[in-house]
Amino acid sequence: YEFFRKRLGGFGDAFHLAYRGMKLAQSPVVTQLWVVERPFKTYPELLDYLNSWDPREQEARSVNELAEQYGEFWRGRQKLLEDVTLVAGETYVTLWTFFVIHLGYPFLARLIHQDIDIFDESMAKFAAVTKKYHEAWARTGIKAFVQHDDIATENGPVMSLQWFKEHLFPHYKGMWKPFKDRNIKVINISDGNHTPLFEGYVEAGSDGFKVNNDANLSHADFEELYAKWGGKKVLIFQPNRETMMYGTKKETITEIEFMTSLAKKYSGTFLHGIDSRHHPTAAYKTWIKNRGRT
């Protein structure tokens, strides 16, 4: 735990569990470690491993201990940024992301398709750990919580909406109860285009969504999302990646003007990642000029 706390900053999230028993590698150009060897090398070995695996026993810290650590982490940052922004709580290795790291996608995909009951049992075990983290976060005094779980790619969700409704989102609903009981807002974030999953998030109790630029959404996509969710849910969107990375100065300005024109029509909307690779000054000047609400 101490290694990952120091390596990754803050309180370490659940990386110390996701990487437990793994041989790891790292690079000076990326922030996260990756797994190069797992204790199971064949599928039967994986099944044996999961049969005796219980992360609830591996997380020895109590809710009170976690709440004290999280609270210290959060209060320090909220004090520093008091007049600038509201600092939210967060889990990164929330549920699906944990199994991507711990099992790897090839084994995870095979487990889902061949032994869904074992997958569901394993998912429930780790969901109990994450709910423990959420209960601790809920005791710190936060007003909002950002739950990260990478369940999509640029091409869309890795599984269907119905599959997530059956196997993942019920865990989300249970994990969010500590926040719902205290009126703490829950916002979902995933890499990729997870917009087709918004309906499922909302049914589970989500209060908003954050979409990164690797979703590569079009203007029509943004217009549709704002029309459906604007003023109803917290929306945190990022301009089109291709435009911000490779567009001309005129295209960059047009993109920021378009995003701000939509965002300021609704309450609870935010923009992030408005930096441009080749035209940063133009991007920020356009944002500052157009960010005010009328």
Mean pLDDT over all positions: 92
Query: What would you call the quaternary organization?
Result: single chain
Number of helices: 16
Q: Rg, please?
A: 20 Å
Report the span from N to C terminus. 49 Å
Total strands: the figure is 10
**Protein structure class:** alpha/beta
Name a few traits of the molecule.
12% strand; 294 residues; two-stranded antiparallel sheet; 10 strands; six-stranded parallel sheet; alpha/beta
Walk me through the structure.
It contains 16 helices and 10 strands. Helix 5 (63-80) crosses helix 8 (116-138) and helix 13 packs parallel to helix 15. With 294 residues, the chain is of the alpha/beta class. The relative contact order is 0.08. The model has no long low-confidence stretch (mean pLDDT 92). The strands form 3 sheets. The protein has a 6-stranded parallel β-sheet with strand order 3-4-7-8-9-10, with helices on one face. Strand 7, helix 12 and strand 8 form a beta-alpha-beta unit.
Write the layout of secondary structure elements.
Layout: H1 2-8, H2 15-18, E1 23-25, E2 34-37, H3 43-52, H4 55-58, H5 63-80, E3 89-91, H6 96-103, H7 105-114, H8 116-138, E4 144-148, E5 152-153, E6 156-157, H9 161-167, H10 169-175, H11 177-181, E7 185-190, H12 198-204, E8 208-211, H13 219-229, E9 234-237, H14 241-246, H15 249-263, E10 269-271, H16 280-290
Parallel strand pairs: 3-4, 4-7, 7-8, 8-9, 9-10
Antiparallel strand pairs: 1-2, 5-6
Helix pairs in contact: 5-8, 6-7, 7-8, 8-10, 10-12, 13-15, 15-16
